[in-house]
TrEMBL record:
<dbReference type="Pfam" id="PF01657">
    <property type="entry name" value="Stress-antifung"/>
</dbReference>
<feature type="signal peptide">
    <location>
        <begin position="1"/>
        <end position="23"/>
    </location>
</feature>
<keyword id="KW-0964">Secreted</keyword>
<feature type="domain" description="Gnk2-homologous">
    <location>
        <begin position="28"/>
        <end position="131"/>
    </location>
</feature>
<comment type="similarity">
    <text>Belongs to the cysteine-rich repeat secretory protein family.</text>
</comment>
<feature type="domain" description="Gnk2-homologous">
    <location>
        <begin position="137"/>
        <end position="244"/>
    </location>
</feature>
<dbReference type="InterPro" id="IPR050581">
    <property type="entry name" value="CRR_secretory_protein"/>
</dbReference>
<keyword id="KW-0732">Signal</keyword>
<keyword id="KW-0677">Repeat</keyword>
<dbReference type="GO" id="GO:0005576">
    <property type="term" value="C:extracellular region"/>
</dbReference>
<dbReference type="InterPro" id="IPR002902">
    <property type="entry name" value="GNK2"/>
</dbReference>
<dbReference type="InterPro" id="IPR038408">
    <property type="entry name" value="GNK2_sf"/>
</dbReference>
<protein>
    <recommendedName>
        <fullName>Gnk2-homologous domain-containing protein</fullName>
    </recommendedName>
</protein>
């Protein structure tokens, strides 16, 4: 895994590589408690607002498109939160993932005003600053399959081509959903399956810019790997040689 441990509005590149294969659905892929943005106390107004926002998001029955934002409070005590589920996840699994995320963030980030957690199925983030509609690529991290392909050069090219096609499809989505999946067969008869996604609050070009930043990391994170992914607050992609997404939902 490679990640940047700086505030979410910074695009940083701090590499700490750890091999990782397929993550369990109930295990966080990564989480960040950003004390740089300030802390709050247990009896503060910010804490009360945060509890209200997280409760609203995690219990909302209308998260049918896998995307939800909420704000509560004023000035320095305002809390802004966003939940995003992977586009192929059904509503029940989506809500369950968001509920788990809210519990875990409270547990692991007890007094930070900004935090984010990623699971395989969803992302949940909150902050005392207004980040809706902003393309934020940092902090990011990557994960990759431990197995290599035999012809890395050709395979890398085919992965990049497929992701580029899906990037434009996802960016053309609406304000409820910016998500695309697809597959391609390589010259060595391997089938590559891929998924790309942006938070739907982004404009089309913002989504493209975010995914361009993500795919630019392919040579570093995933050179010749049978699978890999880059995950950031505003976008993510993943590819594997086996299908990992649910076609019935997409």
């Amino acid at each position: 895994m490679a990640s940047s441990r700086l505030p979410l509005f910074l695009c940083s590149i701090v590499l700490q590589l750890v091999a990782h294969t397929i993550a369990q659905q109930d295990t966080p892929l990564d989480e960040l408690c950003l004390s740089e943005m300030g802390n709050f106390t247990k009896k503060s107004k910010y804490k009360a607002n945060l509890d209200r926002v997280l409760s609203t998001i995690s219990s909302n029955p209308k998260i049918n498109y896998g995307f939800y934002t909420a704000s509560y409070g004023r000035n320095n005590d305002q809390v802004n939160a966003m939940a995003l589920c992977r586009g192929d996840v059904n509503p029940n699994s989506c809500r369950s993932c968001i509920k788990t995320s809210a519990v875990e963030l409270r547990k692991h980030c007890p007094n930070q005003k900004e935090a984010v957690i990623w699971y395989d199925y969803c992302m949940l983030r909150y902050s005392n600053r207004y980040f809706f509609g902003n393309m934020e690529f940092g902090p990011w991290f990557w994960m990759y399959n431990l197995h290599n392909v035999s012809d890395a050069t050709t395979f890398n090219r085919d992965v990049a081509t497929l992701l580029n096609i899906l990037k434009n499809k996802a960016a053309s989505g609406d304000n409820c959903r910016k998500f695309a999946t697809g597959n391609a067969t390589t010259t060595n008869s391997l089938t590559i399956y891929a998924l790309v996604q942006c938070t739907p609050d982004l404009e089309k070009q913002q989504c493209i810019d975010c995914l361009n930043n993500a795919t630019a990391l392919l040579p570093k994170c995933c050179d010749g790997r049978q699978g890999g992914r880059v995950i950031a607050p505003s976008c993510n992609f993943r590819y594997e040689i086996g299908r990992f997404y649910d076609l019935t939902v997409t």
